Amino acid sequence: MEDTGSTTSPMDWTSIGNRFPEINTVNDSLGLSPTARNRYKQDTQLMVLIATTSVIGLVFNIAALAVLLQKRNRQTITNLYLVMLAVGDILLCTIVLPLRLVHVYNVFWWTRASCAIYVVLKYTPMYVIMNTVVLIAIERCVAVVSPAKFSAFASPRNVKIQLGLVWLLALVELIFPFAVIKTTRQPVKNYCTIYHLKSSFVYMFTSMVAVPLVCLIVAYGTIIVTVIRRRRDSHVTVEKTPASKETGARSRRTNTRLIVTCIIITILAVVSWMPVYVLMYLRKYYHVTTNRHIHHYVIIIFYFHPVFNPLVYFFVDARFRAGFMRLFRRKKVGEENISMASVTKIDGILE
């Protein structure tokens, strides 16, 4: 359903003033007060930063994708999930961020159909990213808590089903936003948005942040409890041979590194996404006034999320770091062999 909106002429600056109260009089071609000009300048700076972030995130995630898919024997189930996460971040950089620029500056005449397409393109990558983060937590939980069941969980057929469900669930979660979208007419341009109902904000926050957060807390909480219990019980086990001790220590290091990496990814996702929805909810329904700079900082953190994950892989995992560096510089064969030999004993994401 389209909102027919204002029936005023295209140059009705009073109607524009309803949206931008800072616009007082038409003294020049724009009719902007100093406050409005300052706001426009801040918005432009924010959009430039978002555009820069999209380019950086795109480069980093394409590089991460190339490293994770370099060798077939490194394509573990965790790495495949990280590939899906990189794909979601790439979509965020190539679709969501550019569309954000179009939306903020109102440079497109939105119809009901184009607005619906915009909502699907905007929110699908976001839901895919959060669903993948939850799936990674579930995979780590099964691997640690029920090792005997992990081989069945991580079978090629089941992994394909899981990755398909990530996208299917994202589309199902879009049913409600798709139902409440509308176009709001402006005197010169129009604006595509979701109905500003409390139910829409509650749904978006619950489905994209709250429910995934609960799942993540349960999964990683179960992992931590299981690890603590096993370490306590290990003190009363029978004597082990040096070889078995070394194997067990190596396995524990690998699991610990993977769990730490996944927890960092989870924390960054929650810290990046939760403040945006909390701030919108407080401002819209409890009339909590926040400094405009705070709002910009929250938006910046949100759009920096695609950059965070590749940086985590780079600093946590030596194999990923070596593969990443090889993408951006050429080495002699001897140097490359030495470089890879120096990290063969380091457990990481790629192993």
Percentage of residues in DSSP E strands? under 5%
Helix and strand composition category? mainly alpha
- Mean pLDDT rating: 73
User: How many E-type strands?
Assistant: 2
User: What CATH architecture would you give?
Assistant: Up-down Bundle
Poorly predicted ranges (pLDDT <50, ≥5 residues)? Answer: 1-32, 331-348
Give the H and E element order.
HHHHHHHEEHHHHHH
Descriptive labels:
351 residues; Rhopdopsin 7-helix transmembrane proteins; two-stranded antiparallel sheet; 2 strands; globular; GPCR_Rhodpsn
Q: What would your notes on this structure say?
A:
- This protein has 351 residues and is mainly alpha-helical.
- 74% of the residues lie in helices and 3% in strands.
- It has helices at residues 13-19, 34-68, 77-105, 112-145, 147-153, 156-173, 175-180, 198-233, 242-285, 292-303, 305-316, 318-328, 333-341; strands spanning 181-185, 190-194.
- Strands 1-2 form a two-stranded antiparallel ribbon.
- Helix 2 (34-68) packs antiparallel against helix 3 (77-105), helix 4 packs antiparallel against helix 9 (242-285) and helix 9 packs antiparallel against helix 10.
- Residues 1-32 and 331-348 have low confidence and may be disordered.
